[in-house]
Amino acid sequence: MYPSLLPTCFLSHIHYIHTFCFYAFHIHISVYIHKVSEVRFSLSVKNSPISSMDKYEVVKDLGAGNFGVARLLRHKETKDLVAMKYIERGQKIDENVAREIINHRSLRHPNIIRFKEVVLTPTHLAIVMEYAAGGELFDRICTAGRFSEDEARYFFQQLISGVSFCHSMQICHRDLKLENTLLDGSRAPRLKICDFGYSKSSLLHSRPKSTVGTPAYIAPEVLSRREYDGKLADVWSCGVTLYVMLVGGYPFEDPADPKNFRKTISRIMSIQYKIPDYVHISQECKQLLSRIFVANPSRRITIKEIKNHPWFLKNLPRELMESAQTNYYQRDNPSFSLQSVEEIMKIVEEARNPVPSSKSVGYFGWGAEEDDEKEEEFDEEEVEEEDEYEKRVKEVHASGEFNVI
């Protein structure tokens, strides 16, 4: 019996689930103002972007990831809910962060989380974006076990629509996975792609110094550490997402030994996967998967070909048809963000400066020192697991056992 995704969540991907909660906002605003006044800023108080925080109020914590933490906030005037991702000022504000913000700002599409603005706090850079009330697609599958073919197709159609738009804007995501696909709160959930931290302009070929992405979703050519086409690597990741929705497990992990990275890499390189007998899907669906899971990217199906595939076109919602999305594809449309690229980069550059005596200010400039300690512990765990996987990739690559044909 092929195991469901739910145990795999805890055995192989526990660090991708929100593993701890942060303390609620509990410092009186007068104390916050007093502490903020003690921090020196290069920007004047009158023109400082910090004042933008005044229009939001904290609702609750949403969770944590390798980027930092996320919170749900409410706009005081409009009452709109927004998600805010906090990244500690200083060394963590690297080229990945700047690239994520600029790339995300350029993407206006119904299947992509909307970027709104960036805000500088005394201790963090905050990225404000659309809030998806339905949570992660990952959690929906964990609850359901697996989807019917029709439900999987419904979400896959939206995923491909969003990815197609990214590619049309010459942006490759490079870390597509269930955890990076959110759902809105509607009865017929709309899928929203998020987290563009690894994204890269496809005008330049990808030659990463390290293997980017998430183990179970990585394409063979990415593991090979040679120059690769980011668009075709995204296609592979979309295929893994479709498989997980249909089966409830990852295609290239050994069900009996999901933590064995070396075996996972071997199975990816040799395209070793199967559809369990108890999972009944159409031949058209199986054929589409077989065209996605191709080791040689030049022979792999493209996004354009997927959008013309009979299985994909079946029951395609009207809103996903090309004619219905014309307005979203017009580049002269105003951005959802009112901030210019220049304004954003000025704030990001300011965020690169570490905050002196940040411990005395506290977490986000609001909380207690132990929150900082919790974040440091979480970061150490993330680095250890990422380093272990990177080590395994290097070992396999050095052995010369696997090559992309």
TrEMBL record:
Organism whose genome encodes this protein: Lactuca sativa (Garden lettuce)
Reactions mediated catalytically: L-threonyl-[protein] + ATP = O-phospho-L-threonyl-[protein] + ADP + H(+); L-seryl-[protein] + ATP = O-phospho-L-seryl-[protein] + ADP + H(+)
Residues annotated as binding ATP: K85
Source lineage: Eukaryota, Viridiplantae, Streptophyta, Embryophyta, Tracheophyta
Keyword Transferase belongs to the record: yes
MF term (GO), any: ATP binding
Compositionally skewed regions (Acidic residues) per UniProt: 368-388
Keywords, ordered alphabetically: ATP-binding, Kinase, Nucleotide-binding, Serine/threonine-protein kinase, Transferase
Full protein name: non-specific serine/threonine protein kinase
Domain of life: Eukaryota
GO terms of biological process kind: abscisic acid-activated signaling pathway; response to osmotic stress; response to salt stress; response to water deprivation
Annotated spans, Disordered: 362-392
PANTHER family hit by this protein: SERINE/THREONINE KINASE, SERINE_THREONINE-PROTEIN KINASE SRK2G
